[in-house]
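Hello Y.,

Per our agreement to keep a running log of every chain we model this quarter, I'm adding this entry. I've kept the format consistent with earlier entries: sequence first, then predicted structure.
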Amino acid sequence: MKEVELLAPAGSYEKAKIAYLYGADAVYCGTSSLSLRTRADMGDDDLEKTIKYAHSIGKKIYVTLNIFAWDEKYEEIIEMAKKLEELKPDGIIAADGGVIEVLKQYAPSVAINVSTQANIVSLHDCNFWRKNAAKRMIMARELNKEQLRYIMENKPDDMEIEIFIHGAICFAFSGRCFLSDFLACRSANLGDCAQSCRWSYNLYAEEKNNPGEFMPIETNEYGTSIFSSKDLCLINELPEIIDMGIDSLKIEGRLKTEYYVASIVNVYRNAIDDYKRDPKNYDAKKYMKEIEKIKTRELTTFYFNDRKNKDIQEYDGHQYNEKYQFGGKVLKYDGDKAIIEIRNRLQVGDIMEIIVPHQLEPIEFKIEGLWDAETNEEIDVVNPGVKGQVVKMVLPIRCEENWILRRKK
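Predicted structure for the entry above:
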């Protein structure tokens, strides 16, 4: 069975470390102002540190430089290309033809991966970019499996194919959207999306023969989120995707929390490894059980199985998980107690889960006691953002640095 790369999002240096810890073969992260997630916490110094860390542990890293750039951006783009030529990431993700020309000139030793923003939907399109020095094609999410299979069976051997298998879907064609720019003066194509598609709207219908008389369309208390998509999830289709020979399986989410990155990477790491070990007994239900704990929107297979699929939109604007939330992150140990950086309100008696790297089933336990990390004073409740946000806690097993705790609500 062909080796497949599990590619995780890294919105910061800390998130990159957690992604690798929980099983990612590679991460992708942005430049400070030239990627489509400029609000991710990744400055140039952090980018350099992340690249060096990845290579020190034998992992891969791809850098996104995938904005659609105005001419005034090119001086900065050229300087970044020169910097990346020195830092040697495993690839640079770009979509703009002008940017790719700059990369060919100023970062000639770094592989070019064509971003999903370029809307690659055909083998002909793949061959065009290959002739223009690209090594890997990140396919548009709108492709179905028959189209992908055709590309895999007819592409040149040295061409790599990457697809998204999990995460948010844009309402627009592979993310090429001007809705945010129109409503909030924040361009998604320059990395500053306001996620206008996730907003709730009040809608009215005007009867043609009575202009000026508006009738409200039924909505709930939040309006209706007519532009908001469900999240992509291809855990059921994973065996079919691996058997196609896809080179890299990508998870969306550079703006997601460390908890999300750890949890979802861990699920797919286990699923891939289990399928490779025992393909006949692959059971997607047990992985979906964990994904249900992580998801913040409903899930869809988008167009992968059926181009006519209409089960795509998240009309109620769901944005959170009602049953589970980020509890905290292990920093280190002090004697027999773990020091935890908490991320949500915790109290004695709460039911928690430890997400163990490379182990699908979490370890459940109840908080029997909490201690202030500075004073060692015993406390009953702790809230993030106030004194005591770093606490001591007794755990049922000894955990390593950056292991993630989940709170069961």
